[in-house]
Amino acid sequence: MKAQNLLALILIPMGLIIAAVPPNTTKPYKLTAGELLAEVNTRSQYVTPETVADMLVNKDPTLRLIDVRSSDEFEKFSLPGAVNIPVADLLSDKYTEILDQGVKMNVFYSNGTIAANEAWMITRQLGYSNNFVLEGGLNYWFDSIMNPQKPDNTSPDEEFAKYDFRKSAGMALGGGAPVQAAVDKTAPSSKPAVKPAQKKKKAAGGC
Amino acid sequence: MGPLVVNEIITENTNLFLAFIIGIGFGFVLESSGFSSSRKLAGVFYGYDTVVLKVFFTAAITGMLGLLFFSLFGWIDLSLVYVNPTFLPSAILGGVIMGLGFIMGGYCPGTSFCGASIGKIDALVFIGGLFLGVLIFGLGYDIWEGIYMAGSMGDPKVSESLGLSDGVFGLLLIVVALAMFRVAEWAETKWPREEY
User: Fold this and answer.
1) Domain tally for chain A?
2) What is the Cα B23 distance to its own chain's centre?
3) Complex confidence, ipTM
4) What tens digit of pLDDT does each residue of A24-66 get?
5) Do B181 and A4 touch (CB under 8 A)?
6) Residue A192 covered by a domain
7) Which of A108, A180, B15, B134 is most buried, with most CB under 10 Å away?
8) CA distances (Å), A145 to each of A52, A137, A138, A181, B66, in order?
9) Which residues of chain A are within 8 Å of residue B166 when distances are taken between CB atoms?
10) Where does the pLDDT of residue B16 fall: very low under 50, low under 70, confident under 90, or very high at 90 and above?
């Protein structure tokens, strides 16, 4: 048989198969369950409120707070400069550029830590890095930063140092007053628009 | 699973090493298929020898089918595979310059090194010209930059522009390639060359 006919006999059926089957759109998960469990056990995804408060006060440009609660809750109160990506919309294409990047430190927060952890786990499984969870969520944020409790007189010095830091950070971030007051201050102005992602980023390489 | 480097299954250095091994294999196949002969290569423009067309199109559709099937099996994530960005004006201009060089010199850049490796003088001269061209482009970059960077289109795929799925476009390409092989063989009998 002529080589060309043989080639046609092999290539055309393969072409027919590939034309007939739907394209594979599933994304292979990056981490095995064991690897993810190991990460969860080290609690390496958590960022303390003190770290976040410090970055906020210093206006650290690498920090990006991501509010994973619903947009209603986000409207009522959000941390300064936070963007709103509800967990339900996490996989929307327009947020890919925010979640899958190597420059900024994304910190998810919700009221507690459950929704934030959900967001973290999903993005981690997609293979995204630089995503973290605010330890204790907003509830602990208010307890620790906005309304810190003065430690007992018998407490060690570190406790007082922590208290002083929390108190000054809280003041700088509009705390030190009842929670309600803070709500008014951080009204719509603290809401940068989320720009829709143009195109999915690809790994560089090639010839 | 794939691409191996992007998913950090192999390191950048291992990748370069694999490229080195594959490169040697590629060069060997090129030489043994007669791609080190400028007359054979130039034959594709005159019709007496179309092996260049057949070999490169076979390679392209084989590679394409491989990638599509790998993607189907979930062995490679095609969205992570690098696609050269398209600059249409400079691609056309570059294609014309490269084609002229190909007809006149009888080599394309890769095959000139293939020819040089077995000591072909014309291949060495071609490489000299190649470096001259690189120098002219590099030193005069300010002059060319406007044309070079004009008309950025991102990295579109032909299948996307036509609104076809990758698989359907793949099948079309295979059929077109096989038809072209027929035409090429016909051309070889129509404009034969006795000896080269």
Assistant:
1) 1
2) 14
3) 0.71
4) 666 656 677 888 888 888 888 899 988 898 888 888 888 999 9
5) yes
6) no
7) A108
8) 10, 12, 10, 15, 57
9) 18, 23
10) very high
pLDDT at A124: 87
Work out the minimum CA distance from B72 to partner chain A, whole angstroms. 5
Q: Give me the residue spans of the domains in chain B.
A: 1-82+164-196, 84-156
- Considering only CB atoms, A202 lies closest to which of B5, B68, B80, namely B80
Q: What percent of chain B has pLDDT over 70?
A: 98
Mean pLDDT taken over chain A? 80
* Calpha distance B176→B195 (Å, rounded): 30
Residue B111: both structure tokens together: 């095959």
CATH number of the domain to which A76 belongs: 3.40.250.10
- pLDDT tens readout for residues A113-130: 899 999 999 888 887 888
pLDDT at B12 exceeding the cut of 60 = yes
Q: Which residue of B has its CA nearest to A207?
A: B84
Token output for A44? 């390496």
The whole domain housing A83 covers: 33-185
User: Residue B194 burial (CB < 10 Å; 0-12/13-18/19+)?
Assistant: exposed
Which residues of chain A make contact with B58, given a CB cutoff of 8 A? 7
How many whole angstroms separate alpha carbon A61 and alpha carbon A54? 12
Interface test with chain B among A5, A7, A9, A18, by most B beta carbons within 10 Å: A18
pLDDT at A196: 55
B175 close contact with A: CB closer than 8 A: yes
* CA-to-CA separations, B149 to B103, B141, B158, in angstroms, rounded: 26, 11, 20
Q: State the nearest Cα–Cα gap between B132 and chain A, in angstroms.
A: 21
Confirm or reject contact between B109 and chain A (CB < 8 A): no
CB contact under 8 A, A20 and B69: no
**pLDDT band at residue A172 using 50, 70 and 90 as cut-offs:** confident
pLDDT category of residue B147 using cuts at 50, 70 and 90:
confident
